[in-house]
Every structure is written in structure tokens, then in C-alpha cells.
Write a structure and sequence with these properties.
The protein is of the alpha/beta class. Helices cover 42% and strands 23% of the residues. A five-stranded parallel beta sheet has the order 2-1-3-4-5, with helices on both faces. α6 packs across α7 and α6 packs across α8. The mean pLDDT is 89. Calcium ion binds next to loops.
């Protein structure tokens, strides 16, 4: 069974999430504080996905997310946010989360996101053939899931990796935001097209010399984006 960390300080929400994860065949690992979450992560290195509440006393969800990524882990991370300001904080700080769910959420909504992220990660793991895609100064290794620019390794989140892979596999092809959303997040993703823009913006900061004047990942006005190299 796949282990999922559930970091949430409100007991009601935590038990509701835990019950629903268990019903869907996951093994939830509970944590009521950021401090406990870090201990549980250490004790369970096979946790494949983390649900992190943003607002917590002490070490908050954003800090836990930052530490998970700082450790080099590529586990899936979904933030549980209470309001729009928190979403801005999550995306604004570029903490490396793959997705977010706004409270109050239904079990169906949360599980759809969890299943989608687990599936995306699984699909990548099955890709065992070592292959490199080269484009300009970039080398994408789809086995190691690494991206290098001019020989320098760039740290990417799951979503950023899937995004750049999509673009590098389709050079010079204009892709609509709808196409990108379906290819990267899956058919059953119920989020907004804005999600694409937010993640493209984050990716540009990592790959472009000047993210305000993108040279590689260019905008196709009124349509979507293109790998322009
Ligand atoms: Ca909370």
C-alpha cells in the first residue's frame, strides 16, 4: 500500500482525510504538527505523497514542503490551503508543491487529486528506457528525470519536469493551455487553466536567463505556449 503523509492540525479534517484515504487503499501516516511530520518522514522514507496543511502553529506546511524538496525528495506534494491568500502564498513562494486543494474540499475532490498525482508519478517510474532529449543548452534525461542547462543540474518539481518534457518532446509546436493541462495533469483534473500559467512561470524562473523575456519557453498569445528553441 502506498504511504501518504497527512499533515493537518485540525483533528476533524485529519480524520476525515485519513478515513477516505484508507477506503481508497492508501496507508495514511498522520501528523498533527510540522515537527511530527518531519519525524514521520524520516521514519518512513517510502512515503510517496504528502498532504500538507499550510496554516499550522510552529513549523508550517510551506516549511515542511521546503525541507522535503531541500532533501532532494521527488515525492508528490499537495498543499491544503484555506483561502485564496494562502494559494498565492503557496505559488508565490515556489515551495515545490505539485498541486493544492482549497478547503473545504469533498473526499471525491481530494482523492481525484491524490490518484492523479500518484498515477503521474507511477507512469514516470515505468519509463525505464534511458533516453536523453537535447535542445539548445538543455539536456533532459527521462530515466534520471534530470534537466541540465549548460551542464548545470536544475532542480525541478514533478510538474515542472512533466511540463518541460512535454515541450522538449514537441519542439517548435504551439500548444494550447487546454492541451498542456490534459497532457500534464490528466483528463480528470478539475483545476483551472491558470494552473498552467502559474507552473510555466515557475519553470521559466528556473530555465530562462531572463524570465521576463523568455527565450526558450515562449508565449503564443491568446493560445498557449511553445518550446521556441
Ligand atoms: Ca491548519
Amino acid at each position: 500500500m502506498k504511504k501518504i503523509l497527512v499533515l493537518e492540525d485540525e483533528t476533524n479534517i485529519r480524520s476525515f482525510v485519513v478515513i477516505n484515504l484508507r477506503r481508497s487503499g492508501y496507508e495514511p501516516i498522520e501528523a498533527e504538527s510540522g515537527e511530527i511530520a518531519l519525524e514521520k518522514l524520516k521514519a518512513n522514507p517510502d512515503i510517496c505523497l504528502a498532504l500538507l496543511d499550510v496554516m499550522l502553529p510552529g513549523i508550517d506546511g510551506i516549511e515542511v514542503c521546503r525541507r522535503i524538496r531541500a532533501s532532494g525528495s521527488k515525492m508528490g506534494i499537495i498543499m491544503l490551503t484555506a483561502k485564496t491568500q494562502e494559494i498565492d502564498k503557496v505559488t508565490g513562494l515556489m515551495t515545490g508543491a505539485d498541486d493544492y486543494v482549497t478547503k473545504p474540499f469533498s473526499p471525491a475532490e481530494l482523492l481525484a487529486r491524490v490518484d492523479a498525482l500518484v498515477r503521474r508519478m507511477g507512469a514516470d517510474e515505468e519509463e525505464k528506457v534511458s533516453s536523453e532529449i537535447k535542445s539548445g543548452p538543455f539536456v533532459l534525461n527521462t530515466r534520471n528525470r534530470t534537466l541540465e542547462k549548460d551542464g548545470q543540474r536544475l532542480k525541478l518539481t514533478q510538474i515542472e519536469y512533466l511540463l518541460i518534457k512535454l515541450f522538449m518532446e514537441n519542439p517548435a509546436k504551439a500548444m494550447s493551455r487546454e492541451d498542456i493541462l490534459t497532457a500534464v495533469w490528466g483528463d480528470d483534473f478539475t483545476g483551472e487553466l491558470k494552473t498552467v500559467d502559474v507552473n510555466i512561470r515557475r519553470l521559466r524562473i528556473k530555465i530562462e536567463d531572463d524570465p521576463t523575456e523568455p527565450e526558450f519557453l515562449t508565449t503564443v498569445w491568446g493560445y498557449g505556449y511553445k518550446w521556441g528553441y
